[in-house]
Amino acid sequence: MSDVADTAAGFIRLIVAGNTEDAHELLSDRTAADIAASELQANFDALSEEMGGVTGVGQPMVISEDWPHKTENDVAIVYVPLEGDVFSEAITVTVSTENDDFRISAIEWGRP
Q1: Which pLDDT score is estimated for 1?
Q2: Calpha distance 20→29 (Å, rounded)
Q3: Which of 1, 18, 100, 103 could form a disulfide with 28 if both were Cys (CB 3.0 to 4.6 A apart)?
Q4: How many Cβ atoms sit within 10 Å of the Cβ of residue 32?
Q5: Rounded distance, CA 1 to CA 76, Å?
Q6: Which domains, ranges and CATH numbers included, belong to the chain?
Q7: DSSP annotation string for 19-66
Q8: How far apart are CA 5 and CA 27, in angstroms?
Q9: Residue 86's pLDDT band (cuts 50, 70, 90)
Q10: In sequence order, what are the residues at sequence separation of 6 or more whose Cβ sits closer than 8 angstroms to the Cβ of residue 50?
Q11: Nearest Cα to 40, choosing from 61, 59, 10, 19?
Q12: Helices 37-51 and 2-16 meet at what angle, rounded to 10?
């Protein structure tokens, strides 16, 4: 499951670093069609502003491997904490398989 957590954390680290075009490449085809790279940046910027800025990315945690509405290609839901000066937040992603690669198929901005 460490590859799944690494995929989620890598995706978040790209966004935090401002590399949303590269992060967009890690989205599933369906999700990439629904969310532009600029939307990833805008969503992150809004979350970061609420936090008073992001100072780091914490250790990702696989929080579920089985949930209602899980699809055939879904592997896990991963919680990736964000460290901030004012308070901490998180981005939760669903990691799925697509063409034998791990891809991000859903994103939840902020703690669930």
Answers
A1: 67
A2: 16
A3: 103
A4: 16
A5: 9
A6: 2-109 (3.10.450.50)
A7: -HHHHHTTB-HHHHHHS-HHHHHHHHHHHHHHHT-EEEE---EEEES-
A8: 15
A9: confident
A10: 89, 110
A11: 19
A12: 80
Tokens of 63: 């929080």
DSSP letter, residue 71: -
Amino acid at 65: E
pLDDT value for 50? 87
First to last CA, the chain: 21
Measured in degrees and rounded to the nearest 5, phi and psi for residue 74 equal -70, 140
pLDDT digits (tens, 9 = 90+) for 88-112: 899 999 999 999 999 999 999 987 6
Reported as a single tens digit per residue, the pLDDT across 51-83 is: 889 999 999 999 999 999 999 999 999 999 999
Distance in angstroms (rounded) separating the CA atoms of residues 100 and 87? 37
Those residues with Cβ within 8 angstroms of residue 45's Cβ, 6 or more apart along the chain or in another chain: none
